[in-house]
């Protein structure tokens, strides 16, 4: 095995693949990145057996072959090399790898690769082709609402469904639920996939800058492909909760408000809501939303944020983090808050758009004095 | 107490002062920032009783007075306020503080300030006036060489001495020693001060962007003043080691080398030197310095860095971190390495300058194969 490649393309591919390599593992081979050279292309792959990432880059291949190197060290070495071409070479006699770059000569010990899981994608059918920005925006708009406890697999995942040439993403941790729909796709094959939220966050990171993302799926796996990158993941087993029934369709109060104004006021209120349930109180008045929070130790803050209110007065409290997260991620100038009552769910959405809905439950202990 | 001030100047002063406020403390008052208003100036101060920082900013004072507020919260609140003027007001009746900024109304509970240590500087004599850049460069060039164990107070400090219109800074952890001298000062009062390295690092951070720094000292304290900031610190008691006697004056080998070339090669070698003593081996040859490191688990790296060598061949090993730190901090294009022998001290200095010297002991277990 011998090839010449640019350090710049090698290091980008290796950094991407490293994201699937587990930081700690009992199995030495899983800490490695598999390097395969053949037909003008070098392909790197890494996996923790659930999530797998493959990246490729062009190279001048003198002899094809493959080897497994410690992932973290490979990336650290590549990062510290000068820019330009490097020679990568394996001596079949002793399993040693030689990297020559300028005046630097590295000799690395390969890992045993017999048991390293090869990423297989044969049984996956193409499902849809999604513009990169639409997919990345959708993932970022729902991923934060998934649970992070590592225990409830269903809530640690995002439901991706294809229907009527639309891709829909749903995530919930039981306290709030986020739902994003992409623009109309050229075509799709209807179906539902439960994907670990961690996988989707890696997808959002890796596809940035690409144009189109091919999504392929099977009963047990989903794969996201761009020109040079492939992210593959096991699916979560089970049936997702019937979320459509919990989204209210009729509301008695509405506030239309400048997103950044409400965000700034809530960020100030957050400082006073560190107690137990992070409660912040919202009062709908004729002039707008009065934001109030207090802490026994520190003091209190109160602020009126101008808004267009319909439905009269309402007094309702939320976990401030559950309001801050969607307000930070949305790009809309104005958002709309729809309320069903002081102790039942509220809905946040960008005004004039039906592509995004965020449902949040209030807290029942009020933050009022 | 009542004043109007710009959020921008208030938050910068508060952030600076917060650096002296201990993160964890048994005494509630020490977690506070003292705010004193009078004569067109608001002065903030914070201290952990050893290090103290005072900062002032202009304000329109309606009523003078002082109060103590939780430091971390004060900074967090100020950071999240919109730019522009704010009204700061204390109600004498209830010790509550009111901050009004735009539509935001804060009510904060003051801390009891009776026992808060007032920073006193009366018995300190002016020692010297030092250009900011010279002081900051000197601190950065020696501080990394001080010990960080929190146990050996003498080695956790930097010796500052004034003599012959020069300021000299010295730090050592027992394995290496850094010595920096500033340019000639207009005047100074000869003397020696043992200053905790943490204090000096805060000074370097806080004076950036100022022009001149006044240094004042007494038997127990040292103070650094700029136009709006004062950093004061207790001195470390004891006698610093007689460092001049350990700096060799005669050398048998010399290498003159491009600093960034050697730095890059050592950074690559560092990856292979994570074992016990972080050893990297240097071989002086006719062509330059051959850098070599190896690790039983990973492999090895070897690289020739061109250099002008005098004195013939030499084989010597160092803790790679002790070489990387001065090479990163120096700005010189070329540096000079002077050696006394394979098992005795080496000296690193910028070529053509006598203002900086870095003495480092080799490691005796070699990194060679």
Jot down its keywords.
alpha+beta, 3 domains, twelve-stranded antiparallel sheet, 25 strands, DNA Polymerase III, Chain A, domain 2, homodimer, 369 residues, 43% strand
Describe the protein.
Two copies of one chain form a homodimer. Chain A has 369 residues and is α+β, with helices and mostly antiparallel strands. Helices cover 18% and strands 43% of the residues of chain A. Chain A folds into three domains: 2-109, DNA Polymerase III, Chain A, domain 2 (Roll); 125-244, Roll (DNA Polymerase III, Chain A, domain 2); 248-360, DNA Polymerase III, Chain A, domain 2, CATH 3.10.150. A twelve-stranded antiparallel sheet of chain A has the order 14-11-12-13-25-24-23-18-21-20-19-22. In chain A, a hairpin with a 4-residue loop joins strand 7 and strand 8. The longest helix of chain A is centred in the N-terminal third of the chain and has 12 residues, at 7-18. Chain A is elongated. Chain A binds chain B through residues 70, 73, 76-77, 80-82, 96-97, 103-109, 264-265, 267-268, 271, 297-305, and chain B through 70, 73, 76-77, 80-82, 96-97, 103-109, 264-265, 267-268, 271, 297-305. Strand 9 (104-109) of chain A pairs antiparallel with strand 21 (299-310) of chain B.
């Amino acid at each position: 095995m011998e090839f010449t490649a640019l350090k710049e393309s090698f290091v980008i591919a290796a950094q991407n693949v490293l994201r699937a390599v587990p930081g700690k593992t009992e199995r030495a081979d899983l800490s490695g990145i598999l390097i395969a050279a053949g037909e003008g292309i070098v392909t790197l792959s890494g996996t923790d057996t659930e999530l797998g990432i493959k990246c490729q880059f062009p190279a001048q291949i003198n002899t094809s072959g493959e080897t497994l190197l410690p992932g973290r060290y490979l990336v650290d070495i590549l990062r510290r090399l000068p820019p330009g071409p490097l020679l990568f070479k394996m001596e079949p006699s002793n399993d040693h790898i030689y990297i020559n770059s300028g005046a630097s000569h590295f000799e690395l010990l390969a890992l045993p690769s017999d048991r390293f899981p090869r990423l297989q994608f044969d049984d996956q059918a193409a499902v849809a082709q999604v513009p990169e920005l639409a997919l990345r925006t959708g993932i970022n708009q729902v991923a934060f609402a998934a649970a992070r406890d590592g225990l409830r697999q269903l809530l640690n995942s995002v439901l991706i469904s294809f229907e009527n040439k639309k891709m829909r993403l749903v995530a919930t941790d039981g306290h709030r639920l986020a739902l994003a729909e992409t623009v109309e796709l050229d075509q799709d094959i209807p179906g539902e996939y439960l994907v670990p939220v961690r996988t989707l966050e890696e997808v959002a990171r890796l596809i940035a800058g690409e144009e189109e993302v091919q999504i392929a799926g099977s009963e047990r796996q989903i794969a996201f492909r761009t020109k040079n990158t492939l992210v593959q993941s096991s699916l979560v087993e089970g049936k997702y909760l019937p979320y459509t029934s919990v989204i209210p369709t009729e509301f008695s109060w509405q506030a239309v408000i400048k997103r950044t104004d409400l965000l700034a006021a809530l960020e100030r209120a957050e400082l006073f809501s560190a107690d137990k349930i992070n409660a912040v109180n919202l009062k709908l008045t004729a002039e707008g939303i009065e934001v109030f929070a207090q802490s026994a130790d520190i003091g209190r803050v109160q602020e009126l944020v101008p808004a267009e209110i319909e439905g009269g007065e309402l007094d309702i409290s939320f976990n401030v983090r559950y309001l801050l997260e969607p307000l930070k991620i949305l790009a809309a100038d104005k958002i709309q808050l729809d309320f069903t009552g002081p102790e039942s769910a509220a809905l946040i959405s960008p005004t004039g758009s039906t592509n995004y809905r965020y449902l949040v439950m209030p807290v029942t202990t009020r933050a009022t004095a």
